[in-house]
Write a structure and sequence with these properties.
It contains 6 helices and 7 strands; from the N terminus they run H-H-E-H-E-H-E-E-H-E-H-E-E. Strands 3-2-1-4-5-7-6 form a 7-stranded mixed beta sheet. About 40% of the residues are buried.
Amino acid sequence: MQADDQRKWNEKYRNATLSTPAEPAWVLRQHTRLLPLQGKALDMAAGLGGNARYLAQCGLSAYAWDISDTAMEHLADYARRFKLPIQTRVIDLNQPHWPDEQFHVVAISRWLDRTAFARIGHLVKPEGFLFWQTFLAPVQSNAPRNPDYYLHSGELVRAYATWRIHVHGEGWLDDQDGQKRRYSWIVAQKPA
């Protein structure tokens, strides 16, 4: 399974260049005021690293994890070229064990694995922040076809109910390709 997923995503990013758009998630851009002034930030399922680039530009030491070694190579090249503090790592997030690290910020966009809710929570340091934005059910014609990749209404709020919820919402957002898609988003702070 990992090899098939890696091939799929490597093919997607094969023709990327330094000018290929890699925008941060809307929830991250709109709620930048909640970011700490310093610390470590993780962009999970990073792709070309739109969140990692943004977090690094905000002064955080950014880390990017993705299954695509091609995407991680492109992002590492981008970071070197523009002198951004971004470290990349090829990781299959569908595997049950991740590196034992913690971050002041974890940002996720357009990725979902319900079995990982607790593991994601472990990645966030006490009093750290989770910024998460992904597809909202029902299945959309211009988004993934697999219903497992869609949140149900209120699901993120329920998953992190013991955290301080600063922001949550659901609705239509413009994507970087100019299309509108339904999303759910949250900014949650882990208890001390």
